[in-house]
# Entry
Amino acid sequence: MRTNSQNLSFSDFLINPRTKITRTEKFLQRVLALVDFSFTRKIHEQIHNAVEGRTPYDALRLFKIMLLQEWFGLSDAVAEEMIYDRKSFQDFLGLVANDSIPDESTIGRFRKALVDKKLDVDFFDEVLLQIEAKGLIIEHGKSVDAMISEVPKGRKKDDGTSSRDTEASFTQKNNRTYHGYKGHNATDTLGDFILRTHTSTAKDHDSIHMKKVLDGDEKSVFADSAYQNKADKQEFRKNGKFYGVIEKAKRNHPLSSSQKQKNHKISSVRCRTEHPFAEIRIRMRFKARYRGLRKNEWHWRMVTAAYNLKRLVGKFFPAQKQAVAWHR
# Structure
């Protein structure tokens, strides 16, 4: 396999001797210890199949850059700068003293290749396989929910056209107008891992995409009242499955005390699907960066797969053990 990566030199062992390990460095070390990145060889062969010309960057290194971008909410330009600046990022990427660092245009071209070949689907499935291989049992029930990803509304140009993303759309929630896309997730009932994803334009009602994040083998499904559907309810009950969707009160038909109690029990399970959204939006600093449904679909599937990897590390190394550490 042709790559331009270099082997470690003696100078690499002498540069910057430190005794303190930051939380970020420790996290990245644990990712390297837990995750098998051998799947990137197939990606490299699919993208860089020429035997002549300039030696390409290793897909392993570029793919790790994609993960750094998702974990830390980095644009291409900022990612390039951070790799130059942070030793922990260089170590994670396996960079040595004589290695060249991919620039932002190289990162962008690699992303385009991943998008065009739909390799985000393979990566998402690969992460779930590795999670199961680690002995982490994923529950058969699922909790379903969606998150709005806003994109700029665009501006009108002098010629009458607009710079607005034509595949994005408007929706309202809590008396506020949003413009963008929706990322739909199905998590296990413990809220640990995201099992399936789907991306739609923002105007679509959540309920019409519910079955796109289900595989039909679920023993139970939990969701908020936006997913309430009489036909789905009858179908689930007919097949002996639990339909845990919050009941809605209707005009002149308030909820009974038994319905309120049931809603409370369902909510105690359904609420766990909010945890991945909070992690992705706040700690991973997710925001929609691209135009068009396909690119946003790619982005949502990549960030959810990156979340699953982060959650995998958390399963083996709980948060209280991920604080700043010291060499002994």
